[in-house]
UniProtKB/TrEMBL annotation:
Protein name in the entry: Flagellar hook-associated protein 1
Gene Ontology molecular-function annotations: structural molecule activity
Ranges of residues in domain Flagellar basal body rod protein N-terminal: 8-37
Keywords: Bacterial flagellum, Cell projection, Cilium, Flagellum, Secreted
GO BP, sorted A to Z: bacterial-type flagellum assembly
Cell location: Bacterial flagellum; Secreted
Pfam families xrefs: Flg_bb_rod, Flg_bbr_C, FlgK_D1
Biased composition (Low complexity): 269-279
UniProt cross-references to PANTHER family, sorted A to Z: FLAGELLAR HOOK-ASSOCIATED PROTEIN 1 (PTHR30033)
GO CC terms of this entry: bacterial-type flagellum hook; extracellular region
InterPro entries: Flag_bb_rod_N (IPR001444), Flg_bb/hook_C_dom (IPR010930), FlgK (IPR002371), FlgK_helical (IPR053927)
Length: 471
């Protein structure tokens, strides 16, 4: 009798286990399109008999049924770590590619509105002046074209300033967003720990937390490691930001002036603590843009502006103006200095057309119609180490850098997509697989129910018919 009633317990546990499996399958199907959801599986484990011998009782039962209390998330720790690393790298390369695109927009090359076109117009105007050295119209054209070139240098510099300022503001916004996400992860860690300690389900909470950790990987290159009671610890650049339920935020410190940038300023530091953090992801890309990429091209543009001033000033002071006086500096920094000139401070130092030195210096001090100096300045366009060549080299380098950045981003996007596909193949919900599980658990439930029916019939015979002879 005890064995028969034990069979009822075994069949009941089977019914419960199959029902548990169907419930989990239904949860998976319901969340097939839920972002960040990891498919779940009911862990069916056989419940054996009593393995401990006793003096007065020995159990020879084959087992006591099945246990289905544990429901696990299907995740691959290696793929999760790869996803964090690749998403951070993709985000960083995206920022780099976007930054170079902004710099290309600032220079507007090739085109008719960039510095190259304006510089060509200046050389052409000097050629026209060489053809008509005494004509006021040609002299006026030289000053107008040169003033337009100066304005274009300043416009390009202002565009670089704008790109830097926008990136700096975006970094501040990113830090605020990161701090919010860090606090949420810490709160979810707390909830998961309490649920784990009390035996309550926490899979959905863990999904929410891991999605936020992946977001941190994208924004600041965060990596995670397993903690106690289902929690995770999160670190960035060697600095631990989340440990269980405790967390440390980030803040941006340093200059807001694009002209005061250094290799370490601005930067991200822990808050509180003030420890410098080396982030990856979007934040790392933005810091690189602020400290290296944009300042680097600004410095090269300033170098072109200084070379333009040196080249034209040297040639112009070698000539004689319309009054027979030696030519003065054509460019300065707005305060009369001829060195330390930048794209922002480049200034046309001459406003009187008579002061343009078109004649050769040997004609001084007598007014003359000589045009040799104007011709010499016009020929500077083809100088192998002149401003035109330096600027073309700058633009070519920008084009190469932008092309390489775009290519790297495309390659990285493919790699990240492959990792995400592998991760989704493991953790994502497959409806075909869930349909198979549904049928499997359905048949298991039917078999367990049939077992109970069979045991019920057996007990009916045993109880109601045993001992009734002749019937």
């Amino acid at each position: 009798m005890s064995g028969t009633f034990g069979g009822l317990n075994t069949a009941t546990s089977a019914l419960w286990a199959q029902q548990r499996g169907l419930d989990v399958t239904g949860q998976n199907v319901a969340n097939v399109n839920t972002e960040g959801y990891s498919r779940q599986r009911a862990e069916l484990q056989s419940v054996g008999g009593n393995p401990v011998p006793a003096i007065w009782s020995v159990s020879k039962d084959v087992g006591q049924g099945v246990n289905a209390d544990t429901v696990i998330r299907i995740r691959d720790a290696f793929l999760e770590a790869r996803a964090q690393a690749e998403s951070g790298r993709t985000a960083s390369l995206t920022v780099h590619d976007t930054t170079l695109a902004q710099i290309e927009q600032a220079f507007r090359e090739p085109g008719e509105t960039g510095i190259q076109a304006k510089l060509t117009d200046v050389f052409k105007s000097w050629g026209d002046l060489a053809s008509n050295p005494t004509e006021d119209g040609a002299r006026t054209a030289v000053l107008q074209k040169t003033a337009t070139l100066v304005a274009e240098f300043r416009t390009t510099d202002a565009a670089l300033d704008k790109a830097w300022t926008q990136t700096r503001s975006a970094l501040d916004v990113l830090a605020d967003d990161v701090n919010t996400t860090i606090a949420q992860v810490a709160q979810l860690n707390t909830a998961i720990k309490k649920a784990t300690q009390t035996g309550l389900p926490s899979n959905e909470l863990a999904d929410q937390r891991d999605a936020l950790v992946l977001k941190l990987s994208q924004t600041i290159g965060a990596t995670s490691s397993k903690g106690d009671f289902g929690t995770v610890d999160v670190a960035v650049g060697g600095a631990t930001l989340i440990s269980g339920s405790s967390s440390t935020g980030l803040r941006v410190v340093g200059t807001s002036d694009p002209l005061a940038v250094t290799g370490t300023d601005p930067r991200l530091v822990t808050d509180p603590g003030g420890t410098t953090v080396t982030p990856g992801g979007t934040g790392g890309g933005q810091l690189t843009a602020l400290r290296e990429t944009i300042p680097g091209y600004r410095a090269r543009l300033d170098g072109v502006a200084q070379r333009l001033a040196d080249e034209f000033n040297s040639a112009h002071t070698a000539g004689v103006d319309k009054t027979g006086a030696p030519g003065g500096a054509l460019f300065d920094d707005g305060a009369g200095a001829l060195t330390g000139i930048t794209a922002k401070t480049l200034t046309l130092a001459i406003s009187d057309t008579r002061r343009l030195a078109a004649a050769d210096g040997s004609t001084a001090p007598t007014p003359t119609t000589d045009n040799r100096n104007a011709m010499a300045i016009a020929k500077l366009q083809s100088s192998p180490d002149g401003t035109a060549v330096a600027y073309r080299q700058l633009i070519v380098q920008l084009g190469v850098d932008a092309s390489v950045a775009t290519g790297n981003l495309k390659t990285q996007t493919v790699v990240a997509s492959q990792v995400e596909a592998s991760r989704e193949a493991v953790s994502g919900v497959n409806l075909d697989e869930e349909m198979t599980n549904m049928l499997r658990f359905q048949h298991g439930y039917s078999a367990a129910a049939r077992m109970i029916t069979t045991i019920d019939e057996t007990l009916d015979v045993l109880i109601n018919r045993t001992g009734r002879v002749g019937l």
